[in-house]
Amino acid sequence: MSRQLGCEVESLNLDRHSVVPLYFQIQQHLLQDIRSGRLKAGKPLPSEEVISKRLRVSRMTARQALKSLCSLGVAYSQRGKGTFVSEIKLEKNFRQVQSFTEEMEARGSRPHSKLISSEVVPVGEEAALALRLPPEEKVIRIRRVRVADALPMGVETTCLPQPLCPDLLDKFDPRTSLYRTLSQGYGIHIVQADEVVEAGLANSEEARLLGISKGSPVFLFTRTSYVQGGQAVEYVKSTFRGDRYKITNRLGQSGNDNSSGGGM
């Protein structure tokens, strides 16, 4: 396998006298192979060791070349396995209220979840504010790693008011869709949500759970979900991989009168 993977870099002649850094020359060569389709989505890239030996560069230079491809979003790393060519990034659509399971199924992916913890806990200040609960209230807190096609995508922490679904922990299979369980088992139909997205860097725990390097780019989502009457029923904080997700939205101008001025 290593001999085969080395073919991608053996044809590269590095200009060691150029002002262009060696890692960037390697990155550009591999990037061209990815964009041309020679390196297919899901296939492994040459390892640090292979690049270092075949091109006679330091492991640090090889590591920087691979890391820069991950930063561009065209590759992703899995701890203990290597670096792989990325599939097309999954889109996060803000125009629809969908659970992770619904999003992945709509895109033809196989969703799955790995339970980290599920427990009844005091509500906490942030969740109390979002869910409009008194500080002495209890919530059901479920932490899961969300997985699509066997690849960890995000770490999600969900808080639900305990009185709404007091026996949820006994009935809910955390590997399945929470929204379906709430709808079918408790008559809770989520129809609207406020969601905020921020850019961040993976901490040590998130990196371990997602199989990425500490400090990798991530999206930080905060969602408060509501039923038809406007009652807040769910508060979610989640961290999703920046190399596997992109955000899409459709923007429009308010009104059709463009006579008042020009653009930017």
List the helices and strands and how they pair.
Elements: H1 2-10, H2 22-36, H3 48-55, H4 59-72, E1 75-78, E2 82-85, E3 90-93, H5 100-106, E4 111-122, H6 125-131, E5 138-148, E6 151-161, H7 168-171, H8 178-186, E7 192-201, H9 204-210, E8 217-226, E9 232-241, E10 245-248
Care to describe what's here?
The chain has helices spanning about 1-10, 20-35, 50-55, 60-70, 100-105, 125-130, 170, 180-185, 205-210; strands at about 75-80, 80-85, 90-95, 110-120, 140-150, 150-160, 190-200, 215-225, 230-240, 245-250. The protein is an alpha+beta fold and about 260 residues long. It folds into two domains: about 1-85, Winged helix-like DNA-binding domain superfamily/Winged helix DNA-binding domain (Arc Repressor Mutant, subunit A, Orthogonal Bundle); about 90-250, Chorismate lyase-like (Chorismate lyase). The strands form three sheets. The chain has a six-stranded antiparallel sheet. The protein has a two-stranded antiparallel ribbon with strand order 1-2. Helix 1 (about 1-10) packs across helix 3 (about 50-55), helix 2 (about 20-35) crosses helix 4 and helix 3 crosses helix 4. The termini are far apart. The model is unreliable at about 1-5 and about 260-264 (pLDDT under 50).
